[in-house]
Design goal:
By secondary structure, the protein is an alpha+beta fold.
C-alpha cells in the first residue's frame, strides 16, 4: 500500500539528507583520485564536472537516510570476505542502520532489478546518460503479470521495472542481501558504459548546492512512500 509522506516529515528528511551530504563531502575530501573506470586496468582522470558539464546537481538527492559513514570507497581493495586477492569495487558503500530507506538519486526510469547476484536485491535506474545502481536492499524480486517487481512489503515498497521515479523517491531499504558483511547501501554510478567514482559526484553536488544555497529537490506529491 502506498504511504503518504507528510510535509513536516518531508522537510525533516530534506534537512537530514543535506547534513548527510555535508558529512560525506567532508569525509571524502581526500578520497579516491580516479574519476572514471572503464575496465580491468583502465581508468580515466575525468571528474563529473567534465563528464557532464551541463549537470548542476540541484535536482539530485542523497541516496540513503540515516547515513552513518562510508565504509568502502571506489577503487581497488582487499576482498571484504577474506583472502589476499584484490578486487575493483565499482561503487561507494554507505553504512546506515538496517531498514533505513534508500532514495532515488536522480529522476529516471527503472531498467533492471535482480535478487540473485552478489549485489543482492538490487535496482538499476537510468537518468539520461547516467545509470545508478543500488545493492543489498531488503525484499525480493517477483514477476507480476509478466513484469518484474521489487517488493519489500514490510517497508511499503513495490517498484516495477519500467517505472519512472522522481529524485528522492523511496525505492527500498538498507538490508544485507547478497555478499555483504554488514548493513549498508552499495551505490554505483555509470556514465555511459564507464563506472564513475560516486565520491566525486557527492563532492560536486555539495559544492554546487552550497554555491546556490539550495536544498535537495524531493517529491511533495503523495506518490512518495
Amino acid at each position: 500500500m502506498l504511504q503518504r509522506e507528510s510535509e513536516p516529515s518531508l522537510r525533516k528528511n530534506v534537512v537530514c539528507l543535506w547534513r548527510s551530504l555535508l558529512l560525506v563531502a567532508m569525509g571524502l575530501s581526500g578520497a579516491i583520485a580516479v574519476g572514471v573506470y572503464q575496465g580491468a586496468g583502465q581508468a580515466l582522470d575525468i571528474e563529473p564536472e567534465r563528464v557532464a558539464v551541463r549537470n548542476r546537481w540541484q535536482g539530485a538527492s542523497f541516496p540513503v537516510e540515516n547515513f552513518q559513514a562510508y565504509t568502502s570507497p571506489f577503487g581497488y581493495r582487499s576482498s571484504p570476505t577474506g583472502g589476499s586477492a584484490r578486487e575493483f569495487h565499482r561503487g561507494l558503500d554507505l553504512a546506515a542502520p538496517e531498514g533505513s530507506y534508500v532514495r532515488n538519486w536522480w529522476a529516471g526510469q527503472v531498467i533492471k532489478m535482480s535478487d540473485n547476484t552478489a549485489c543482492g536485491t538490487s535496482i538499476h535506474i537510468r537518468s539520461g546518460d547516467w545509470t545508478h545502481i543500488y545493492c543489498h536492499l531488503k525484499g525480493h524480486v517477483e514477476t507480476i503479470n509478466g513484469i518484474p517487481h521489487l517488493i519489500d512489503r514490510r517497508g511499503g515498497i513495490q517498484i516495477q521495472q519500467g517505472q519512472s521515479l522522481r529524485a528522492g523517491f523511496r525505492i527500498g531499504r538498507v538490508g544485507m542481501t547478497g555478499r555483504t558483511t554488514g548493513p549498508h547501501l552499495h551505490w554505483g554510478l555509470k556514465y555511459g558504459s564507464s563506472y564513475v567514482d560516486p565520491a566525486l559526484v557527492l563532492r560536486s553536488m555539495y559544492a554546487e548546492q552550497t554555491r546556490r544555497k539550495i536544498s535537495f529537490s524531493l517529491p511533495s506529491q503523495s506518490h512518495d512512500r
